[in-house]
Amino acid sequence: QKEVEQNSGPLSVPEGAIASLNCTYSDRGSQSFFWYRQYSGKSPELIMFIYSNGDKEDGRFTAQLNKASQYVSLLIRDSQPSDSATYLCAVLTNAGGTSYGKLTFGQGTILTVHP
Amino acid sequence: EPEVTQTPSHQVTQMGQEVILRCVPISNHLYFYWYRQILGQKVEFLVSFYNNEISEKSEIFDDQFSVERPDGSNFTLKIRSTKLEDSAMYFCASSDNRLEYFGPGTRLTVT
To answer: How close is the nearest chain A Cα to the Cα of B65, in Å?
Structure first.
């Protein structure tokens, strides 16, 4: 059973701070990693993806991947109250020899950014 | 910006009834998925569909479930005889072989 684990939180940070969200995964063969944001009652919204070890930055978001430790993280700089949401880590499991597959999600981390 | 659309947004049905949830994937995408999320729980994979056939399905996707792409734009999920435990948000997603984009979801309530 391939697992994706996240601390469910809630994680509370003040406005303007850096929020750090973490995720571990069990399938060492996983190659593609995603962060989705989900507001209450809404669908997951893709915000970051990362395939290679190291950091990937996009605006206020930085995704970090360490395949040796099977660890993915998301940093949100200059956090805003509008960033308050559940952040879902997802790992792509490829369908036998193909480049597409299904996403396995973690349970999500609830982030609250307070003014 | 292209997006995945789903109808209806909310479906209420009685136990034992059939429901069909509809999705219009992003037009140039070839890979389609259904996921579900029971209230307070993880998003769970149900089924993937490519080249007019199921490419993978989960243990949840039993004989009560079926998918179809009846024309060039729609992608449907049918639940033949709904159970109380089928109550959940059902999300359709489509992919360009790299990134999966989710529709807004259909909230299914089985009474």
So the answer is: 18
Q: Where are the beta strands (DSSP E) in A1-115?
A: 4-6, 11-14, 19-25, 32-38, 45-50, 54-58, 61-66, 71-76, 85-94, 101-105, 109-114
Q: Hunting for tokens 């435990």 — which residue is that?
A: B85
Residues B110 and B86 sit within 8 Å (Cβ to Cβ): yes
Q: Which of A43, A88, A99 sits opposite B104 (nearest CB)?
A: A43
How far apart, in whole angstroms, are the C-alpha atoms of residue B84 and residue B110? Answer: 5
Give the chain B residue nearest A32 (alpha carbons): B98
Of the partner residues B33, B42, B95, the one whose CB lies closest to the CB of residue A105: B42
- pLDDT tens digit string along B16-69? 999 999 999 999 899 999 999 999 999 999 999 998 899 999 999 999 999 999
| Separation between Cα atoms, residue B75 and residue B67, nearest integer Å | 7
Which residues 55-94 of A are in CB contact (within 8 Å) with B? 88, 90
- Nearest CB among A43, A49, A101 relative to B91 is that of A43
Q: Do B33 and A106 touch (CB under 8 A)?
A: no
Identity at A6, one-letter amino acid code: Q
For chain B, what is the largest distance between any 2 Cα atoms, rounded to a whole number of angstroms?
A: 39
| The residue to which tokens 């029971």 are assigned | B38
The pLDDT value recorded for residue B56 is 92
